[in-house]
Amino acid sequence: MNIIKVESYDEMSQKAAELIIEKVKNVGRMNLGLATGGTPKGLYQKLVEDHKANGTSYKEVTTFNLDEYVGLSATHPNSYNDYMNRFLFNHINIDKSNTHLPNGLASDLEKECKRYEANIDASGGIDLQVLGIGENGHIGFNEPGTSFDSRTHVVKLEESTRKANSRYFQAMDEVPTHAITMGIATIMKSKEILLLVSGARKAKAMHRLLNGEVSSAFPASILKQHRNVTIVADHQARSGG
Length: 241
Ligand code: PGA
Prior knowledge:
Largest sheet: 7 strands, parallel
Strand content: 15-25%
Distance between the termini: 19 Å
Shape: globular
Oligomer: single chain
Strand order of the largest sheet: 1-10-9-6-2-3-5
Radius of gyration: 17 Å
Number of helices: 7
Bound molecules: 2-phosphoglycolic acid
């Protein structure tokens, strides 16, 4: 794993944006894997600013998001679909029909998982996947204990994850109990992975990622076995132990 050490959240976002913009400009058609949550908001803001200032085009870019809550419509303000529109897609020239998230309202969720996984494969796979890390080491919504062989699947969210995400909801009981997430094997199929880690809250997870063993008890540890991972971590995230 290649680690890029930066000082601040802003610098992490800038560095990540530069890496993505360079690829979008040079590769032509590409499949970009995207994440939600607090961490990548700054990155998306930088991509939007760059699009406005320099006209970087997303016409040839297809996106696949890591996950989506079960039970929220695409327009629900807490859905990841809505998040992506608000923070990125509405502000760049991407064709919305090329943006993909699992459908959390599908009547047959198992079938939806299979469809999503097949769609990624049929598109040629993900060229670059943006990832965050949970305090418990989760990637996407793959909680500790998830099989490294998992493909896109339905998960029951851990209470700690629901609690961490409840900051975006009016009340804890509004936080969905389930989600659809790319599996760990789905994430590992990506040709390249860009992991963003920021803040003291993530310091323990960062330390364990770098120093711990590869174990499904800490899902992110599998990234050590991927050929092309870049971690951009700020000072606070690197200060733990
Ligand atoms: P965060 O979430 O970016 O909101 O900290 C990351 C994650 O849980 O994967």
